[in-house]
Amino acid sequence: MRYQKPKGTLDILPGESQKWQYVENVAQQIFSKYQYQEIRTPIFEQYEVFARSSGDTSDIVSKEMYDFEDKGGRRLALRPEGTAGVVRSYVENKLFGPEHNNPYKVWYHGPMFRYERPQSGRQRQFHQIGVEALGSDAPEMDVETISMALNFLNELGLKDYKVVLNTLGDVQTRKNYHQALLDYLTPLKEQLSADSQIRLMKNPLRILDSKEAQDQKLVADAPSILDYLTDAAKKHFQVVTNLLDQIGVAYEIDANMVRGLDYYNHTIFEIMVTSPAFDNREMTVIAGGRYNGLVAQLGGPDISGVGFGLGLERLMLLLEQANNNLPEFLGPDIYLVDVNDADSAAVSKLLTQLRQAGISAERDYLHKKVKGQFKQANRLHAKFTLTIGDEELATKKAQLKRMADGSEFTVDLTDLSGILQQIKKG
RNA sequence: GCGGUAUUGGUGAAGUUGGUUAACACACCGGUUUGUGGCACCGGCAUACAUGAGUUCGAGUCUCAUAUACCGCCCCA
Question: Which sequence ranges form a coiled-coil region, renumbered to this chain (predicted)?
């Protein structure tokens, strides 16, 4: 039997994992400047948490969710996205209460699961970093969210992106527009693609997003949601765009941009990039928006939220392409060579002392000969080697060799700080 | 869920109309150097061609099924 990882999953091996740590560290740094703190919620939740929040007819719920029954007969699901779990936690822990700071700002990172066909940058287990700000319906909060996303990308050295913006308005807007769209499209039903004919019943907004040429032609003359905004919704969006203008964030408005999840309203945005990593096709790396009403939907008070999520697999492809100086794993500062097994205990003892003194140190564990140990030290990119044998142990003097140029220094084995000093000099 | 392409050692791969020991290179290990790396030379390294069936005297080479990867659709991060 030959085992292989499940379809659509990835081993993130050493070498690769450094990049992930780097990105997560940058996220942590940037987000904390905006006073976001990390939250860790379960990887699985009650099925209903996702079904209720995302919408029963959404693709995620209807065909992409990993749902299962546990041994106690509970219906659970692996999280397909991060927001629902965070909101559930916010409600369950009553984080809206007066003793907590609101807006309550959290970020998270971790694996998400969707049962779909894997492709480049798309996995069944994939990873997202996301942020949520709960408890403010101020448009300023939308803008902060967008600018934080951009700040994050900038810090990673990614520059070639554009911000695409739209508004889905409030409940009344949605209702009015929904009807207007139906009025327009229903007579044209026969001209729509087969997929879009189904969408017409389930979620007509999605037709706006169709890639079928025949649909796009019809959509071009469809009513725009921007003409159906209520006064309040219009005002909210205006403040958002004004603020973006004032802080110098360029954006495009795409009135046809929609969302696969039902819980969004008001401002939605995507940050898109065009990169050789995706064959120079436009690709969304960050998507977010406002979801007033979701907290209430999951049993909490009528509290607003806004956030975004980004796919780490896609981000990694971009970073590789951008070829920014990503961190590499460094070899040991010193590699201890033991000449024969009898000296092994002394070597291990010194090794421990060196590590306790705060430097990275390594030795041989394969009983290699001296030559082999030097090869190994070279391969690990060790900065120094220290050779220890009977003679050295007897005289307490040993040769510290700088691997870069081969120069050697005699050091006193009883003088740990002297050795450390020499190593720190490089 | 639908369609297309692919799958040979640790890696990159060659494998002719199905017919002896699965080429070559890199990496790795060992030796030349009985205590010192990066170079050179020598040697070693796939009972095995994704898995399972089938056709055949004989299959890495043909057929079918399954798995996985990649690409497109759907959808999305």
Answer: none
- Can you give the residue range of the structural domain that contains A116? 17-170+230-322
How many Å apart are A374 CA and B31 C1'? Answer: 16
Instruction: Say which CATH number the domain at A394 has.
Output: 3.40.50.800
Last residue of a domain, one of A301, A322, A343: A322
Which pLDDT score, from 0 to 100, does residue A1 have? 56
Same domain, A300 and A369: no
How many angstroms is C1' of B6 away from CA of A275? Answer: 26
Say if CB A9 and CB A1 are below 8 A apart: no
Whether residue A139 is found in the same domain as residue A286:
yes
User: Which residue gives the smallest C-alpha to C1' distance to B34?
Assistant: A369
| Number of domains comprising chain A | 2
Same domain, A22 and A61: yes
Average pLDDT of span A93-114: 96
Which nucleotide has the least CA–C1' distance to A286?
Answer: B77
The residues with which A270 forms a beta bridge, in sequence order, are A164, A287
Nucleotide with minimal C1' distance from the CA of A377 is B37
Q: Which nucleotides of B are covered by protein (CB under 7 A)?
A: 1-3, 28-31, 33, 35-38, 50-51, 67-77
What is the complex's ipTM, to 2 decimals? Answer: 0.85
Q: Are residues A88 and A163 in the same domain?
A: yes
CA–CA separation, A318 and A246 (whole Å):
29
Are residue A26 and residue A97 in the same domain, yes or no?
A: yes
Nearest residue to B30, CA vs C1'? Answer: A372
CB-neighbour burial class of residue A115 (10 A; exposed 0-12, middle 13-18, buried 19+): middle
Residue pair A399/A349 in contact (Cβ under 8 Å)? The answer is no
Residue A191 lies in a domain: no
CA of A398 to C1' of B49 (A): 52
Partner residues linked to A67 by β-bridges: A77
Lowest mean pLDDT among A58-62, A172-176, A248-252: A58-62
Q: Which nucleotide is nearest to A311 (CA to C1')?
A: B77
